[in-house]
Amino acid sequence: MVADDGVKLDDVIAAQVSDGVRTNIVWQLLAYLVLTSSEIMVSITCLEFSYTQAPNRMKSLIMSFYLLSVSLGNLLTSAVNQWIQNADGSTKLPGDSYYWFFTAMMLLASVGFLFVAATYREKTYIQTQAEGEVTP
Length: 136
Fold this sequence. Notes:
This protein is mainly α. Helix content is 69%, strand content 0%.
């Protein structure tokens, strides 16, 4: 939800700019700071979850599925950006409606996650040393 706050902050700034208000670049830097912080927190959490929930022989495969999901999200964003472009260079989602669209998509993903999380049964696999292996 921190990422959602960063997008909302960006929405407020975009709405002010659309209304003709001059804003300082620091506001945009603040939005990027919030979005970057949330991306770091989500990435670390997902990587740790992927690593601890995968059996020892499947850790690399499960980690690759996490990275695949990130790339699919980037492709989705790219496809949306291609779809909203009009022939004259304008967009179908002008101004802050562009950001609200992605905020709604994140909300839908969060709701979908709630259903998955409710049915998930956790089983932790911790990587252990093989017999005879020496720790440096």
